[in-house]
Design a protein that fits this description.
globular, 9 strands, homotrimer, three-stranded mixed β-sheet, alpha/beta, 2-enoyl-CoA Hydratase, Chain A, domain 1, about 50% helix, about 240 residues
Chain lengths: ~240, ~240, ~240
């Protein structure tokens, strides 16, 4: 299995586990993540979800799997994001190594992100002839200010975990070997607090940007689909697949 | 008196003065603060309000007083917030020691906040079975980014004045014994500038988030009342009052 | 000429060049900037605009020129801002020395800002009996948080390039003699990425705050015109012109 699901007390851990591909995400993995979240939401004994990888968080979409997808209806990635965005219980992320593309943008929908100081976050959408997704065209500027957000989104330049914490993109950066322990401690701390208050607090926080976020995600989706079929992206994908094929 | 009101030149100081209870706020104190603000607004010689405490800013709502309140119509705390949120003249806050609950969230409605590096800000709403108030479910994320805001709101973890300044929750952190002097200097500096421009600048700044803030405060109020009557909060209050009774 | 326009590869540089007046902006200079931008937008070989000054970025509006303007219809400054705000290609700014008034607020509409650590940014609107413009009443708080934004806008206090970078007002602060080189490197990096993706990414980012920005700019404009004709500003301008006349 490429996504492992384990429960320890009130914390359900969803762990990306495809190390040979740096946890590159396939449609099957997105489906497993969505199911994990739905299980966690339905189970009253689960109070917090911990989302983790291994040496790497994720290299982003698996390009071969991504390119193979038949363009019919919303993707599994889309369903996963929908589930994560409105998720009622706290989500804590533990990020080591690479967090590429959706690997960074999904963090904008987690409640607490513990990153390795040496983590390498990246949103290389423009390099692929694409555009920001997962609401990042709007959320990133709100988290780190437009001066940093536009630079990161336009250039696709890598961001260290240290920089990400300074800027407010992640909650905290710690030494690499402390990430897992710290994230688990955060998850357990949140799991011990009154669950009704946690859910209601998260609901209020989400409500404050819900409408703007939905508008942004709609605009991104329309644009992403168009850019993906466009000449810039197609040429880049062909080159990528030829090179690695 | 538990709130002292003094005027020095164009600066009116409202000082919380109930040190034996760490300036815990009673309905009477909220009323005195609202009256102080209204006096300041009406008096053309007052150009800036300085809001201060003593060794502590405030321990937040006085729980006994809070629990005793008959649930009929808006509270004095509500009236105070309404007055502060739309206040036309600059408000400077000087924060030392503890700033708990509304003691932190009211800072989101001050124009300049000078905090002690050693101050201890806290929003322990979830620990009490409650939810964020005073617009903090929306404003906090706008000030410090969602990665820090959600962690602070969900966990109720204490924030030092130093951290608060780094994150942008307060304007500046200074050594504890410099807080009062620094805050007074800021207030005097602002009081010396053209009052028409000050009022108009503040009006424009407030207008930019007015609608979103009102929506957030309405949602919070509805939720806060419901949570307060709920089982989580009632059990916590009973325990607190038994323990301290 | 007081604005020079040069193209090197895909980067068009608009350089303020009126050093004897610290690049204070006249109506003619605003017109030249607007024309430069329109040229850059129309020319498919131009992919990025670099906006630069010299030892100083700009001292802001030339007060004599500003005061001489007949109050009929939108100003050239207004047209320049309109063009910059919706500009479709990335704009990089290189800021050394003074950046006063619109010299700071226009940076809020650039995509990447490289500032000298020793730069001196200032928004002294209240000191002139005026109010924030160029959307700064709304954008500044979104970039740096309200605690810093309100202090800076109300007090007009100078901000070093170093502080500006820490707060997220500019993208990066570097030693003074590295500003030009660094800004050019950023511009070239962005110019080498797929232009369709760049334009589309910028469009999505702008869309996320377009409506709020337009509302804020409308409110500012109405207020600015009123304040400019008001007694506070007129007295300050008279004194300024007498003193320097």
């Amino acid at each position: 299995m490429t996504v492992s699901v384990t429960r320890e007390g009130a914390v359900l851990t969803l762990r990306l586990d495809r190390p040979e591909k740096k946890n590159a995400l396939t449609q099957a993995m997105y489906r497993a993540l969505s199911e994990g979240l739905r299980t966690a939401e339905a189970d009253p004994e689960v109070r917090v979800v911990l989302l983790a990888g291994g040496m790497d968080f994720t290299a982003g979409n698996d390009i071969a799997d991504f390119a193979a997808r038949k363009e019919e209806g919303p993707s599994e990635a889309f369903h996963f994001l929908e589930t994560l965005v409105g998720f009622a219980k706290p989500v804590v992320a533990a990020v080591r190594g690479h967090a590429v593309g959706i690997g960074t943008t999904l963090l904008l929908h987690c409640d607490v992100v513990v990153a390795s100081e040496a983590a390498r976050l990246m949103m290389p959408f423009t390099k692929l002839g694409l555009v920001p997704e997962a609401g990042s065209s709007m959320l990133l500027a709100r988290r780190v200010g437009a001066a940093r957000a536009r630079w990161w989104l336009l250039s696709g330049t890598p961001i260290s975990g240290h920089e990400a914490a300074e800027a407010g993109l992640v909650t905290r950066a710690v030494p690499d070997d402390a990430v897992e322990e710290e994230a688990r401690a955060v998850a357990q701390l949140l799991a011990a607090l009154p669950p009704g208050s946690m859910a209601e607090t998260k609901r209020l926080v989400l409500a404050a940007e819900k409408e703007a976020l939905e508008t942004a995600m709609r605009a991104e989706r329309e644009s992403f689909g168009r850019m993906l079929r466009g000449e810039e992206a197609q040429a880049i994908f062909r080159e990528f697949l030829n090179r690695s094929g």
